[in-house]
């Protein structure tokens, strides 16, 4: 293992700035008073919908999803700059800091494993360019210097012992294939094929695996390969043992010599380990009831996205306007409304970091909340709420087995009937839906922690996880409508005397 860095060097200046900001402007335990008038609300009062304004949503969206924040990738200075932007907006609104040590921030460590730059690969003595012609599919320390056994099919594994050998073959299509039109189809094709094929080969005790892209995988290698180059992110508690068998994925031209039966491979594979900071931003608006204000209705989204990647049509910035700047600015708008007309219970606002790296910010907060975990009455999470048909939306967690609180679902559906009036698509809540969309956002760690939770979304679209997810493509009117629905649901939770609870026996299917 080549390096163990506590904090990567490029982030040190940003951390210095965050320290200064956090101990001055954002470290105040009492933010400057808001210009909005605060009035005590009765349970029958209507929500403050007028505080959710399209012009403010648009301004915030175009700033957070701008090229200047470079896609807000977790573990980078860009994500931390986005967090400061969100925290400053929360301060301007007049929301109280609810993070660690009287600030708006909750930092946590990301453990990142990457393939080291010292890694080298040769076939028949000729160098093969890493990240152009070959990809190491998981960071690993390994040395290979051996002849290559070419396999024409997996059936060849039954004909001779492969223990200790380096084997190569063409990548085989996975079974079953990803569903037609499934998001990130090429990525899922390659990942499923790799998992299935390498599982068979590892059972044979091979020392190394070289897979040559088939015709379907070949044009996807630039996009998928960028993910391999980026490495693996984990929370420290999630750390798993590094793989013991190296797996390399090659372009067809680079892999052609392997099929001769006389090829030899030499590989020196090294890995780096880094610890990066990521951050949740947390703010709070106190409720009006002396007893119920100790309880919190949690509104959540994530402020990170995918950062810089291989250019698509000349654009290398994954801006993440819908995913998930729409929700980040919606939560700010809900904060403005709550300041203008507080509910009886308090509102807690959490902008998670590192969602795109595996729900890491929400996993951290669910395990290390800055308020008593028992005080969190419900979690209203959203992801991607600004695209697709104007009158359509989805509420995941509203049908079994994903529904964990019937009372909470009823409040959300009533708020939709009364205010938003969307046509609700329930098909994506089906556990058999090929996208598995329910499990891909920040409500899941809270559900697993036994807290009532819902997932508001307007679902996927062709620009998902591409540089085309730009602010100019967002339907601002629909975004405002989704924001009001989410807010009205939280308003009902806040002002209903009886606390919503988890249904007896609620259990996710996975």
From TrEMBL:
Pfam families linked: Peptidase_M28
SUPFAM superfamilies: Zn-dependent exopeptidases
Residue ranges occupied by any Peptidase M28 domain in the UniProt entry: 280-487
UniProt name for this protein: M28 family peptidase
Classification via Gene3D superfamilies: 3.50.30.30, Zn peptidases (3.40.630.10)
PROSITE patterns reported in the protein's UniProt record: PROKAR_LIPOPROTEIN
